[in-house]
Model the fold of this input.
Amino acid sequence: MARILVENLNLHYPLSASRPGGKMSGATVAENLIHINNKAFVWALRDLTFSIERGQRVGLIGRNGSGKSTLLRALAGIYSPTSGRVLHEGKISSMFNLSLGIQPDATGIENIIIRGLVKGWSRAEIRRKIPEITAFSELEKVIDLPVRTYSDGMRMRLLFAIATSFSPEILLLDEWIGAGDAQFQKKAAERMEALVDEAGITVIASHNRNLIRRVCDLGIWLDNGIMRAMGPIQDVYQQMDQSQ
Amino acid sequence: MRPNFMAAMRDIWGGLRMHRIWFSLAWFEFTSTYRRSALGVLWIAMSFAAFIFVKLIIFSSLLSSDDASFYDTYLVLGFFIWIYQMQSITNAPDTFVAAKGWIISENLPLSLYIYKSISRELFNLVLTFIVVVAAIIYIGYQIGDGVLYSIMGLLFLIINSFFVKLLLGIIGTRIRDITHFVRAVMQAMLFLTPIFWLPEQMGRLMDYLWWNPLFHYLEIFRAPLLTGAFPTQSWIFVLSLWAIIVAFALLMFIRFRQRIVFWL
Done:
């Protein structure tokens, strides 16, 4: 049964080390800077406490550099909390960026196998899934070509199809919807709804209000690493708009 | 410290158990590197063969040894291990940096990326080994009866490379100069290690050159095959050095494991 529990989550990372995948702008960095033993740290997440229950679809919203991607990575267990804790029950599947976790020189099929193995599936189980993933991503003609030759839209379709095919209980998506045409977005939204029906959890970080409104029922508003609001998505957007 | 220690051990053990993942990653990387060339991975064997062929011609005539087949075999075996060690050590500081895309998008044990690079290098080793066997048969040298000792030596080198990669991988992620430093050092080491020359030829200089660890890494594999002897001194040296490397590598891994992702 899927569940995410976050208790007093704080996350610092050293300023001298460049953080991967982050988009923290100069202005936000200065506001978030703290000093411990004369060393500068960025306080990326501050004392977050919340829980996400089965069947909930949560949109992470907030300005660039507010900590959305960092929180997603903390939920996935990639970033360890400086203090506090993150607990999750259920198999996690994540999609952070179109170029991550993919071997560009390997073929579409090989990438399906690699990502399936990473998710803990056996080769036989993966082989059974390949036709479905290929069909859903509409890549039948190019699945034996290296992924390097794919367009952004094709990569996105492949990654999304893989991420959602191995029955994840918790699906974490970061700004993934940029690529892909309207028709595929519709298909993707339907699939996410189906996943939630199987009692999963979806967390999406995005600036795309239409997408978030359509897919999510709850919202978490992050501002400089602080959780300003959590609740029904319409209310959270309203609070965010009123404060600006 | 205690929970961090347990987590570090879980990482190393858990990563090893995910052999299907790291083996596949290494295999797809290995095959896709040569995908668009007609001869593919055979290039690894052929470039190695060309290299030792040229070296045999030049150095054999340079050193008019009494026993040419001994020297030729010495060179082939030495160069075989050298190529493996050079790849293994120069790739080490980049272990985690090269896997950045995976580390920041998947919650997998960090040791998995070390196992991946080791198996990637072993694919190369197997291909060059075929050339070594062919070369020794061609040279016609009767190898010593220390084959088991040599296998032990090779296995030790593989296990050793895990800890070298762990240590240099952590340092190299934090301090990016290490990659270039290691590369520069290894270039010089080619001439400071007895591959083309014999230790006996160096006289007093060997008292200093003896402290080169790469000499002993070579000896534990090469000496038993050449003469059948068990290189006791070299084993003492490599095992002592190993203990130091393991201690430092584990201490750093226990201390910094969770921070490596922020350094990438």
